[in-house]
Amino acid sequence: MKLFSNHASCSPSSRLVIYTARDLTNHRIKPLQRLSPERRFEMQVVAQVLPFRVNHYVVEQLIDWDQVPDDPIFRMTFPQREMLAEEDFNAMADLLRKEADKKEIQSLASQIRCRLNPHPAGQLELNRPKESEGKIINGIQHKYRETVLFFPSQGQTCHSYCTFCFRWPQFVGEASLRIAAREAQVLHNYLRRHQEVTDLLITGGDPMVMRARHLADYLAPLLAPEFDHIQTIRIGTKALTYWPYRFLTDNDADDLFRLLARIRQAGKHVALMAHYNHGRELEPPAARRAIARWRETGAVIRSQGPVLAQINDNPDVWASMWRSQVSLGVIPYYMFVERDTGPRQYFEVPLFRCWQIYQQAIQQVSGLGRTARGPSMSATPGKIEIQGVTEIQGEQVFALRFLQGRSPDWVQRPFFAQFDARATWMDQLKPAFGEERFFFEEECHQRFSGGGAS
Ligand SMILES: *Cc1c(COP(=O)(O)O)cnc(C)c1O
After folding, report:
1. How far apart are the CA of 353 and the centre of ligand 1, in A?
2. Which phi and psi (to 5°) does residue 100 adopt?
């Protein structure tokens, strides 16, 4: 592809250069000079509220600047005016224009953030386990029986931030709202007490920003026999997209793969849960070399990501991405519905349209690409998949099922909601056939007080 062949700067430039909000208006990000001063000011306004961070690899090798502002990778990483409500945007723009002091800007920013549903689906109240004295264990989420999520404190940033990230509050504002653990002890004690857990998912942020020796502090102790119940180590990351040189030329890349090899030799499975949103991310030669290096270790790479307006709300984009993944040995895993948080009104796609995109994309790929499940909503009661739209006894309905449930017993039971062409999230759906509640709602209410269908 032309983007990568005629770029003088394409040679592996192996030192990561990071840009942040202040670089939106200075001259460090060279191609931004193509944009009007108004557009750059707009980006700066939005970046006071939502996290912004991008690196030279994304700027030089992933974004096609001839296509900006429509370029999908540009929309994925650079803030856009429409990501804030008009009123909020104007209020913040006024403050910047009159060069208000930092305190005033921060105070408005945190007011706006509070209106953006920063912790959807009971992230802070329902998913964090408590110790016997009722004290919350920070840095751990345990929602589905088999799998524990762990948020190491050194992994709570990324090589670039996604504009649509559902964990955006991890990167801005008040530290007390962040999910992070500093101590490996916390993790090991928890896993020791929970023999039902088979999968540990290290997540963030992006745990692949961590140095290998920090990752080893968390993972190497799990090779002891007392942790035999932990069969799979999953690592959630977007580094294959945003900084593939992490796995090629960063100075601890070899240490990282030696650690992974040790885990494998101890009989545990390593799964890289790679976040992908567009086939473009798979095109740079470095991205492909990084995938190949992971696969040499015997790790399996699985891909997941949400449907996003303006970026990938098109079946051909998904079909082509899944085909590339299969040919590179990456297994399509989940297609998500964008969550009800942050700048959702910019990215959200109706559930009906998500399902059409899924169906039309799946029809274009061979069975090996059809391992992707979805479109799936990570809602309070569980991961709910839209299986399709159909008519039953004259009523048009969505057929749904749980892929994961807060209660394991809900999984794989078909259920139905009234068809609604405009609904974008579970809390907007109503049970079909005149029923009052979905089958799981009573139990959800009793066991997880306050957790309806949202
Ligand atoms: C998706 C998810 C998991 C993993 O679910 P799988 O279906 O096993 O991939 C675990 N915990 C939470 C909170 C999740 O959202």
Report:
1. 24
2. -60, 160
**Nearest to residue 333, comparing CAs of 323, 322, 324?**
322
- Secondary structure (DSSP) of 287-344: HHHHHHHHHHTT-EEEEEEEE-TTTT-SHHHHHHHHHHHHHHTEEEEEEEEPPSSSSH
What is the 190 CA–ligand 1 centroid distance (Å)?
Answer: 18
Could you give all domains of the chain from N- to C-terminal order, each with its CATH number? Answer: 18-114 (no CATH), 122-298 (3.20.20.70), 335-454 (no CATH)
pLDDT score of 443 more than 90: no
Region 114-143 average pLDDT? 80
Query: CA-CA distance, 122 to 117, in Å (whole number)?
Result: 11
Average pLDDT over residues 368-384: 96
pLDDT at res. 133: 62
* 300-307 and 330-337 beta bridge pairing: parallel
The pTM of this model reads 0.92
Nearest CA to ligand 1 atom 6: 404
Phi, psi angles (nearest 5°) of residue 33: -65, -15
435: amino acid identity, one letter: E
CA-closest residue to ligand 1 atom 15: 378
Does residue 227's CB lie within 6 angstroms of at least one atom of ligand 1? no
- Nearest residue (by CA) to ligand 1, atom 4, is 147
User: What's the gap in Å between 246 CA and the centre of ligand 1?
Assistant: 25
